[in-house]
Amino acid sequence: MTSPPTGPRLRVAAYVIRRHPCPALLVFDHADCPEAGTQVPAGGVAPGEDPERAVLREVAEETGLTGARVVRRITVDERPHPENGQPRLTTFLLLDAPSGGPAAWEHRVRGDGSDAGMRFACRFAPLPLEHPLADAQDAWLGMVDPRWITSDGGAGSPGPARDTAH
């Protein structure tokens, strides 16, 4: 018998920024599930794994992009899961994208996680974004650069966050 979780699920989310020719954010859409909405790479933190290692793993698993560099932690979002209400803590991290590479590509998720085999249509979307991301994932872009608040006003502050800038 499995015991219930003892606390919130620990997660990471990546703001991978390509700086040239203009600032752009790495996003993806589920090729087989468009209703999931446009998202940034995100996922769970394994026991004993630090957020910086977890975010690089998630970016590589979900998009195939390697060579990104973690710049800093942005905030910790304390909102529960939007569908099941389960508690979660999501550390948002800023990453610099490697130079070069395509502006858009398709990636099939590898590994043994719940998203294994899914096809994601990845791209670098110019900042500020034209539309909010799924699950208000764009809400913290203004903490990186105030000019990057989503054009239509974004999702606003989605709720509690912990300041992690140091």
Structure overview:
The protein starts with 8 loop residues before the first strand and ends with a strand. Strands 1, 2, 3, 4, 5, 6, 7 and 8 form an eight-stranded mixed β-sheet that branches. It is built from one helix and eight strands. Helices cover 8% and strands 33% of the residues. The relative contact order is 0.24. The radius of gyration is 15 Å and the shape is globular. The chain has one helix spanning 51-63; strands at residues 9-18, 24-30, 42-44, 69-77, 88-96, 104-108, 119-126, 161-163. It is mostly beta strands and 166 residues long.
Summarize the structure.
Helix content is 8%, strand content 33%.
What does the main sheet amount to?
A: 8 strands, mixed
Distance between termini?
A: 42 Å
Low-confidence stretches: none
Radius of gyration over all CA atoms, rounded: 15 Å
- Give, in order, the helices and strands: EEEHEEEEE
Question: Mean of residue pLDDT?
Answer: 88
Number of β-strand runs: 8
Helix percent band: under 10%
Q: Helix segment count?
A: 1
- The computed structural class is mainly beta
